[in-house]
């Protein structure tokens, strides 16, 4: 009986040591992986505008019904063209804000006159669906001041971004949450 | 006229340089016009991160308390609903420990990827708790488990052989998830997460249908994802086997009434064993020795067979697919271009660079396939080992690997009802 109890106690002790060692091992491994690169920084998804080909996947592949990606405008890069190829369809009927002339499917870009011959284009975030049509137009013939960015008030920060998985240009990467945008800046601000 | 001029110039520009963001029209110098500022909303505050971790920690504590301390199914139910609401619907699912498997393996194999602290804690905390208390994380905290827990209304008994065989799928899935994360190809566990679309109340149609199918199946087969697919559940099951304070069915003495076995929706309760005869015991020993000898052979054979997966495994990586496509286009095997090949040509990257990346992935896939095969060999060998070793049970006990500590059996146990004072056992037994 005494012998049996001893054996049981030894067994319990071995089991406990095994569990404590396991717990320390898991904790240690996690800490080692997390400390290794000093990575206390949270990471979020963002797309590199220079790689983006404005294929339209951002609008369709986001897990949100209205994509977390929206178009932003670098005002310091913009040429303020009268004939903005990001705003107007190819061969527009007239250079005015008529719906038939616009490239944007939701009419999210506003065109306002600044001074002759310059027009300013601002994007209404509420309406933008991140389809990238204007980005394609601006990159093709303009300065490339319109570009897509993940908007972090909307982004769910999925572990694997569904758009990143579908991005043909592999333009998505994780960036530090404290500096979550990859901005295009023109000479005036740069 | 003007348009023609612009297009002509653009064609010229495109011909000379493909670098984006060329300044074709110098920005004007406005005298009295201030440039608007672009609105850039900040990322979700770090505070929420801590809040989520706190909910995970408190949830784990409460679930453990209700499953093992208080033995309260009702308490577990409340924790289930709260955790499903917070970690599932409110937070939208990411990051979860199941997906974190992939972050951890990516961090292990990819020196460039840094594992964030929150992910390390989310992954590690349930493992440590399971090591001591069993799968209380699965019981109520995991939102994927919670949603299935709530729909398990008419569970049928899955035959043990089928249950055990399907259970192996989780290890296959775990192996694939780790391998593809390690090679940087994809996070397949996240990509095919059946419930995340439901939690977000939106997403791709396929995922919504998949989630709904799992829920419908879950009405009749308790927790189909947890039992047959969840890779994290597979890890937790292994750890739970050595847990110290696993949930017990009868508080004191088992009266062998078998009610708990009937009540368990997940087929996790094993009946008492019958005493073995000397003959079968010797047979069992011989069988055990045979399996132990065969185990290394299974692993080695698995590695050898797994290498054959090199090609298919490499193709999961986008770089390999892209390189294949670009070459196929250049020799005229396929007509037309894809967005990816188009993007590659405009990116200015050289084909040799892409080839180098693709062949590196291809070389890695040799090992990935081999290790996956070896893992499968180990899993099959381990299962045989598990089947060979006979355990002695004097009473009805939960199989620690598959029991998720949901606490349904407590209510059905007459000993527990007597302890609670709801019923009185016959005077002779008191």
List the helices and strands and how they pair.
The complex is a heterodimer of chains A (190) and B (430).
Chain A: H1 2-36, E1 43-47, H2 57-61, E2 69-73, E3 109-115, E4 118-123, H3 133-141, E5 146-150, H4 162-166, E6 172-176
Antiparallel strand pairs in A: 1-6, 2-5, 3-4
Chain B: H1 2-16, H2 46-69, H3 73-90, H4 97-109, H5 117-133, H6 136-141, H7 143-151, H8 160-182, H9 188-191, H10 196-199, H11 205-220, H12 224-228, H13 231-240, H14 259-263, E1 269-270, H15 278-306, H16 310-314, H17 318-330, H18 339-347, H19 351-388, E2 397-398, H20 408-412, H21 414-420
Antiparallel strand pairs in B: 1-2
Structure summary:
Chain A is an alpha+beta fold and 190 residues long.
Q: What would your notes on this structure say?
A:
- The complex is a heterodimer of chains A (190) and B (430).
- With 190 residues, chain A is of the alpha+beta class.
- Chain A has helices at 2-36, 57-61, 133-141, 162-166; strands spanning 43-47, 69-73, 109-115, 118-123, 146-150, 172-176.
- Among the domains of chain A are: 1-40; 43-79 and 125-176.
- The mean pLDDT of chain A is 89.
- In chain A, strand 3 and strand 4 form a beta hairpin.
- In chain A, strands 1-6 form a two-stranded antiparallel ribbon.
- Chain B contains 21 helices and two strands.
- In chain B, 64% of the residues lie in helices and 1% in strands.
- Chain B has helices spanning 2-16, 46-69, 73-90, 97-109, 117-133, 136-141, 143-151, 160-182, 188-191, 196-199, 205-220, 224-228, 231-240, 259-263, 278-306, 310-314, 318-330, 339-347, 351-388, 408-412, 414-420; strands spanning 269-270, 397-398.
- Chain B has a two-stranded antiparallel ribbon with strand order 1-2.
- Chain B has two domains: 47-272 and 394-421, no CATH class; 279-388, no CATH class.
- Chain B is mostly helical and 430 residues long.
- The radius of gyration of chain B is 28 Å and the shape is globular.
- Chains A and B meet through helix 1, strand 4 and helix 3 of A and helix 1, helix 4, helix 5 and helix 18 of B.
């Amino acid at each position: 009986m005494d012998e049996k109890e001893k054996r049981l106690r030894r067994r319990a002790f071995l089991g406990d040591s095994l569990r404590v060692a396991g717990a320390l091992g898991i904790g240690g491994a996690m800490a080692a992986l997390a400390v290794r690169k000093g990575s206390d920084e949270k990471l979020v998804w963002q797309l590199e505008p220079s790689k983006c080909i404005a294929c339209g996947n951002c609008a369709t592949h986001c897990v949100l019904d209205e994509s977390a990606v929206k178009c932003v405008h670098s005002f310091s890069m913009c040429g303020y063209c009268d004939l903005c190829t990001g705003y107007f369809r190819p061969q527009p009927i007239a250079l005015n804000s008529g719906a038939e002339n616009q490239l944007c499917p939701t009419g999210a870009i506003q065109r306002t006159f600044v001074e002759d011959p310059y027009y300013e284009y601002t994007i209404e975030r509420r309406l933008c669906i991140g389809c990238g049509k204007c980005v394609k137009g601006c990159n093709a013939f303009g300065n490339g001041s319109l570009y897509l960015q993940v908007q972090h008030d909307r982004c769910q920060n999925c572990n694997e971004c569904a758009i990143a998985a579908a991005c043909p240009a592999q333009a998505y990467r994780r960036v530090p949450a404290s500096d979550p945008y990859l901005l295009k800046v023109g000479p005036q601000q740069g | 006229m003007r348009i023609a001029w612009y297009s002509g110039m653009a064609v010229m520009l495109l011909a000379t340089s493909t670098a984006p963001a060329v300044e074709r029209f110098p920005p004007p110098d406005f005298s009295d016009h201030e440039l608007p500022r672009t609105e850039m909303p900040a990322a979700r505050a770090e505070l929420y991160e801590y809040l989520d971790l706190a909910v995970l920690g408190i949830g784990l504590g409460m679930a453990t308390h209700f499953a093992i301390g208080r033995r309260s199914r009702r308490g577990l139910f409340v924790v289930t609903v709260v955790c499903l609401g917070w970690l599932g619907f409110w937070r939208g699912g990411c990051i979860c420990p199941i997906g974190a498997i992939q972050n951890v393996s990516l961090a292990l194999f990819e020196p460039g990827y840094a594992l964030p602290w929150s992910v390390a804690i989310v992954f590690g905390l349930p493992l440590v708790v399971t090591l001591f208390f069993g799968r209380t994380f699965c019981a109520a905290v995991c939102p994927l488990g919670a949603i299935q827990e709530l729909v398990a209304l008419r569970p049928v008994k899955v035959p043990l052989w089928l249950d055990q065989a399907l259970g192996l799928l989780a290890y296959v899935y775990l192996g694939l998830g780790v391998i593809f994360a390690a090679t940087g190809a994809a996070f397949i566990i996240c990509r095919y997460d059946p419930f995340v679309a439901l939690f977000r109340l939106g997403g791709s149609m396929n995922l919504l249908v998949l989630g709904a199918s799992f829920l419908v199946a879950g009405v009749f087969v308790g927790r189909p994802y947890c039992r047959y697919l969840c890779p994290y559940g597979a890890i937790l099951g292994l750890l739970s086997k050595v847990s110290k304070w696993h949930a017990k069915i009868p508080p004191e003495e088992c009266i062998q009434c078998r009610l708990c076995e009937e009540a368990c929706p997940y087929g996790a309760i094993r009946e008492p064993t019958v005493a073995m005869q000397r003959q079968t015991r010797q047979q069992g020993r011989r069988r055990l020795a045979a399996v132990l000898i065969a185990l290394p052979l299974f692993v080695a054979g698995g590695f050898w067979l797994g290498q054959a997966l090199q090609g298919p495994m490499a193709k999961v990586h986008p770089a390999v697919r892209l390189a294949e496509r670009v070459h196929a286009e250049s020799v005229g095997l396929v007509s037309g271009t894809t967005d990816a090949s188009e993007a590659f040509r405009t990116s200015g990257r050289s084909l040799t660079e892409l080839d180098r990346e693709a062949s590196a992935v291809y070389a890695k896939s040799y090992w990935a396939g081999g290790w996956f095969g070896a893992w499968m060999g180990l899993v099959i060998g381990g299962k045989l080992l598990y089947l060979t070793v006979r355990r002695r049970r004097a009473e009805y006990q939960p199989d620690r690997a598959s029991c998720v500590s949901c606490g349904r059996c407590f209510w059905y146990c007459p000993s527990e009802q007597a302890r609670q004072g709801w019923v009185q056992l016959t005077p002779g037994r008191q």
